[in-house]
Amino acid sequence: MKKTQEHITDEELLRRYFSDADPQWLGLVLERYTGLLFGVAMKYLKDEDMAKDIVQTVFLKALSEIPKKEIKNIGAWLYQVAKNECFNQFRMQKSMVDEEVLEQIKQPEEVAFSKLLLEDKKSAVLLEALEQIKTEQKISISMFYFEKKSYQQISESLKIDIKQVKSNIQNGKRNLKIILMESTPNLFKKDDHD
Hints:
There is one protein chain. The protein has a domain at 132-185: Arc Repressor Mutant, subunit A, CATH 1.10.10. The longest helix has 23 residues, at 74-96. It has eleven helices and no strands. The protein is an all-alpha fold.
């Protein structure tokens, strides 16, 4: 990604895309969310190949849907599409499983279900908070935590110094913590993102 384009907001890139229909602008927006979408898919599917497939599916859907509709928050929209695709994957897998085996699986307790809902809500809130930090921090955090890339790999990929990568991640985490504690003080405990 060129340095001059790293600092352009998602909204500005989408505006450019709608004004001149150049797919490069949309591609830059989607590229920013690769790590986040992969992380969402891994959270639900726990399978790297399936997660990669989900990211591709989301991108294909985005390429066909975004030109047709106005999307206010591209990050939240992509997150929702990824989550829906994961659930579709579950449904497909469930239909392939023998009914007898399904009956033997214990049902989760209500507490576990509510905890799952809370985790899902935290993911959505976290994604919204990520939208509020600087692009270079968001990209570095996504690559480090969701794509499991090392400082060195991030440095090479973004063509920036390792010290800058560490700084982006450290400052990004601090900014995320501040945003999350201000916007949802009861949802996130202080030690959730240390």
